[in-house]
Amino acid sequence: MNFKTSDDLQVYYEISGTGDACIYLHGGPGYWSKSFQVFAQGLLEGDLQMVYLDQRGCGRSEHSLSQDYSLKRLIMDIEELRIGLGIEEWYVMGHSFGGILAVNYAAQFPERTKGVILANVTLNMYDSFEHQINRGLEILQEQRDVFPSEPLKDYMELVYSTLLTLIEKGVYYRFQYADMEKKKEVDLLDKELRTDPYFQKKIFSSAEYFQNFTELTEEIQKPILIIAGKSDHAVGPHHHLSFRSKNAKIYYINGGHHPYIENQKEFKDAILGYVKS
Fold this sequence. Notes:
This protein is an alpha/beta fold. It is 38% helix and 18% strand. An eight-stranded mixed beta sheet has the order 1-2-4-3-5-6-7-8, with helices on both faces. Helix 1 crosses helix 9 (264-276) and helix 4 (125-140) packs across helix 5.
């Protein structure tokens, strides 16, 4: 299904399940919600009305001709969808990059946010990328003492060069998956993925997305569930310790970046335990 945003863009979503509403915000940046829906719908839809959204420019959503992929616009898309669906309040669940959208939405629309679920999210991309670089250099048995943070372009060139080397050696995806057979299943789903290449380029070249959003968690008064993978080297297994919420419950999972695929029972227990409490 599609809804039309206030700037006339067709954005894709699906809604199914029974219970309190919960919107899922995917990562990437530039990924989509389909793989989460396929793997998680059987876990959550008996207790939650799940809303699966493909962010503008991503997956099945229309690409923005004006290339408006600003943080403000992505947050407004979420709120406009809520209004269009007639939902008074909902849980906001973010995965990976989607955590940045989740905490910004919750901070801007607290009266519409029932709770926040942060599943293996980054709220500070500098911190998460630095972990990836250090982990990559460790695997490659290389050393580096200086990490440029400015200009952003130089920093991202270091990130890309490190990750490209890891991909060429066939080890990068171990940062995200423990079970490579599960990755193959996801790859089959992702053959249909059609994302605007400019979307990720915009995110990774824009200073607004490289802010330290961990500070926003201190402002959010609604209860927060943090799911942390003990071996998640995509965002960093200790990244969540920098979050500042005083109203958060941390649920540790023995796994990597995609617990809804590889650690389904733990993922389900964490979310439904949080919702029911």
